[in-house]
Amino acid sequence: MSTQVPEQQEEPTEAAAETETQIPSKGDARRAEKRRRAAERRAQKQAEEAERAAADEDTIELKVFRYDPEVEGKQEPRFDTFHVPFTKGMTVLDALMYARDTYDSSLTFRHSCRQAICGSDAMFVNGTQKLACKTQISELQEPIRVEPLPHAEVTKDLVIEMEHFYEQMHAVEPYFQTNELPDGELEEQRQSRENREKIKMSTRCIWCSACMSSCNIAAGDNEYLGPAAINKAYRFAMDEREGEDIKQKRLEIIEQEHGVWRCQTQFSCTEVCPKDIPLTEHIQELKREAVKNNLKFW
Amino acid sequence: MSQSYNRGLIEDFGRWREFSAGMWAWIFHKFTGWVLVGYLFTHIAVLSTAIPAAGQEAAVLQAGDDIYTQTIVTLEELLLVRILEVGLLAVAVFHILNGTRLLLIDLGIGLESQDKSFYASLILTGAITVASVPTFIAGAF
């Protein structure tokens, strides 16, 4: 199972030509020879590994999206197939890491904590946005197709450009603000239990952008804040400690043209959210808040 | 707010097999909405061309020889029109039921069972449509 592009096979001859033009020292030649033999060994080991995995009954087939704008032969997006031996409890991320460590070290994807907290490894697995470290292989149909999140620009392989998502998140001012400080200097700003319960789910967001990627509206309207950002706005707008004037400010942000009113309740975001945040419910509640805020009876 | 940069525009409808209930509800609601708008305009066009009937003598109206009656009778003779009427009923019923569902969603009621209410409106639409077939098709053949 070679994931190398043909262009790369020419490299050794190029390197040889280079050393010829310079004065070839014995050490250089020896090192080149050593490198060549190491590469050979690695290739052989990979081939053996691949053969073994293919022969083994309990392997899974992984089809991974590959794209690299910096290497000429990889600029055309393609799918690579990896056979990964299945172990009990294996997640998509585990399988990807096995493929990277065993077959192709250039396979690129984001991951960090591996326990659904950091939110780096949201991917498009078998047609839905999933957190790779939280998705069990045993629950998926083979072959497993792993793609970068849709509706975002791909930087390399499974890595997408997140800048736009972060900008939308920052646009709702996702931090605590208040004009109502307690009297005593060292006094805490306490939150009632009920209020904490109300915003509990919305605080779970891990900024993985799975919801944004699943949202049909966000795909067509690039200025739409998106479910994650609106959920952030909800988390603070519903926090009673922030006070009435800050809430007014927050409602102004979310009720603008590309705010909550873009949501057409397709429930895509709620369905893909790896932290089970009821995003649509929060967006709907903010819509009602916005209406109530602007309705005046006199 | 941030300036846009291209995220590869709109939904890829090629992956329709992976769409979930909420997405289908949205697509059907859009579709039925446009069909109803289209029907409304055809309806107005047909009726307005038959308007001279209003100026007819009472005797002509009685005999059913006026343009209005003639138009309707001619249309109803066509099997295609009969079938389209069944389709129109299906479209309208679904739009009404799903509209009610959306109304409830806007009020924050039953968001957890939004997929079930979509399936329910689909089934109900199917049932009502099937039940209407005898009425619409009667005498068309």
Automatic annotation (TrEMBL), chain A:
A Pfam family the protein falls into: Fer4_8
Ranges for domain Succinate dehydogenase/fumarate reductase N-terminal: 62-166
Segments forming domain 4Fe-4S ferredoxin-type: 203-277
Gene3D superfamilies, alphabetized: 3.10.20.30, Alpha-helical ferredoxin
Any one GO MF annotation of this record: 4 iron, 4 sulfur cluster binding
Biased composition (Basic and acidic residues): 40-55
GO terms (BP aspect): respiratory electron transport chain; tricarboxylic acid cycle
Keywords: 2Fe-2S, 4Fe-4S, Iron, Iron-sulfur, Metal-binding, Oxidoreductase
Protein origin, superkingdom: Archaea
Region Disordered: start-end pairs: 1-55
Cofactor(s) listed in the protein's UniProt record: [2Fe-2S] cluster; [3Fe-4S] cluster; [4Fe-4S] cluster
NCBIfam families, per the entry: dhsB, PRK05950.1
Family membership: Belongs to the succinate dehydrogenase/fumarate reductase iron-sulfur protein family.
Name this polypeptide is given: Succinate dehydrogenase subunit B
Annotated organism of origin: Halorubrum vacuolatum
UniProtKB/TrEMBL annotation, chain B:
A GO molecular function held by the record: metal ion binding
Tagged with keyword Iron: yes
Keywords: Heme, Iron, Membrane, Metal-binding, Transmembrane, Transmembrane helix
Keyword Nucleotide-binding part of the UniProt annotation: no
Primary residence: membrane
GO CC field: membrane
Spans traversing the lipid bilayer: 79-97, 118-140
Location(s) in or outside the cell: Membrane
Any one of the GO BP annotations: tricarboxylic acid cycle
Source species, domain of life: Archaea
NCBIfam families per the UniProt record, alphabetical: succ_dehyd_cytB
PANTHER family the UniProt entry points to: SUCCINATE DEHYDROGENASE 2 MEMBRANE SUBUNIT SDHC, SUCCINATE DEHYDROGENASE HYDROPHOBIC MEMBRANE ANCHOR SUBUNIT
Name of this protein: Succinate dehydrogenase subunit C
Origin species: Halorubrum vacuolatum
